[in-house]
Amino acid sequence: METEINYFPGLEGVVASETNISFLDTVASQIIIKGYDLIQLSQTKEYLDIVHLLLEDELPLDTEKASTAEILKSEYEIPEEILNVFKLLPKETHPMDGLRTGISSIAGFDVQIDDRSISANKNRAYGLLGKVPNIVANSYRIINGKEPIEPLNELSYSANFFYMLTGRKPSPMEEKIFDLSLVLYSEHEMPNSTFTARVIASTQSDLYGALTGAVASLKGNLHGGANEAVMYMLNEAKTVAGYEKMLEKKLLNKEKIMGFGHRVYMKKMDPRALMMKEALKQLSDMKGDDLLLRMCEAGEKMMEREKVLYPNLDYYAAPVYWMLGIEIPLYTPIFFSSRTVGLCAHVIEQHANNRLYRPRVHYTGARPAN
Question: Annotated catalytic residue: which of 262, 270, 346, 351?
Answer without folding.
Answer: 262
